[in-house]
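Per your request, structure below.
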């Protein structure tokens, strides 16, 4: 395991034009790698962000053009690339999945995570019902980046601390959060929740968000960020522009925090009966 690695969070304003989104994603991934990132995270629905009709029209299987491009980039640039998520068409299934894929430096698929928690809410008078067109995943997924255990989550998962605690207890030192967090909820809760998940689990959080307007009046918050296990924001994007933000993840510092304030070690599972 390395003593540190450099992670980059990519912030995009994806639309329903998949080809344009993929071109921009490639440019931004190349920029992150050129700046020294070993781990690069794309946002949720980086390849296509639109309405239900758009998702069904643009859905792909995991051997489709979007993940194939990511695999080629990871192999060429020798990076770990986590493809935030795509609308996945699963064989034999009527609904789609919201699927995040980790491609290793050899271009091989290292892990596949399907978003567990569906965003079925009303925000500022606007109704979102992901379960109308997507099935939730059933499996918590961890992977590894250069030997460092890394948990995989997507967007609305952030509101469910059980998922993050399980990943941390099972060894995750990094947890990734690709998202298209809404502007209203993002302004109120995005940083608060990200920092809470980092502090309570003593992990690095790498969070890539969409920004700006999509599909007419739907707006994402931006503010992609990287947070350390003490809750310090190491890098942050603005809420209104496309960008790459990067930071060094210092695992020796993380170990020191866990040693001096051993909240994970001080858990008492026997007392946590429901």
């Amino acid at each position: 395991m390395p003593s540190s690695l450099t992670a980059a969070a990519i912030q995009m304003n994806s639309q329903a034009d998949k080809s344009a989104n993929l071109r921009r994603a490639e440019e931004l991934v190349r920029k992150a790698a050129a700046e020294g990132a070993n781990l690069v995270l794309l946002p949720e629905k980086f390849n296509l962000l639109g309405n239900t009709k758009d998702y069904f029209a643009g859905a792909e299987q995991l051997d489709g053009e979007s993940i194939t491009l990511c695999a080629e980039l990871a192999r060429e640039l020798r990076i770990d690339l986590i493809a935030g998520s795509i609308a996945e068409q699963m064989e034999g299934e009527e609904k789609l999945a919201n699927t995040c894929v980790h491609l290793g430096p050899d271009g091989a698929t290292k892990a596949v995570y399907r978003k567990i928690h569906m965003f079925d809410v009303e925000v500022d008078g606007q109704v979102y019902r992901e379960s109308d067109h997507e099935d939730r995943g059933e499996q918590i997924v961890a992977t590894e980046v250069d030997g460092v255990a890394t948990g995989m989550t997507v967007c609305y998962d952030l509101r469910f601390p059980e998922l993050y605690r399980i990943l941390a207890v099972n060894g995750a030192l990094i947890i990734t959060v690709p998202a298209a967090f809404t502007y209203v909820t993002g302004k109120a809760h995005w940083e608060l929740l990200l920092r809470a998940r980092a502090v309570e689990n003593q992990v690095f959080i790498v969070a890539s968000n969409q920004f700006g307007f999509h599909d007419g009046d739907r707006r994402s918050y931006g503010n992609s960020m990287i947070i350390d296990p003490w809750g310090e924001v190491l890098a942050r994007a603005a809420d209104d522009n496309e960008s790459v933000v990067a930071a060094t993840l210092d695992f020796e510092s993380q170990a020191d925090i866990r040693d001096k304030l051993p909240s994970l070690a001080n858990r008492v599972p026997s007392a946590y009966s429901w």
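The longest helix spans residues 183-201.

Regards,
D.
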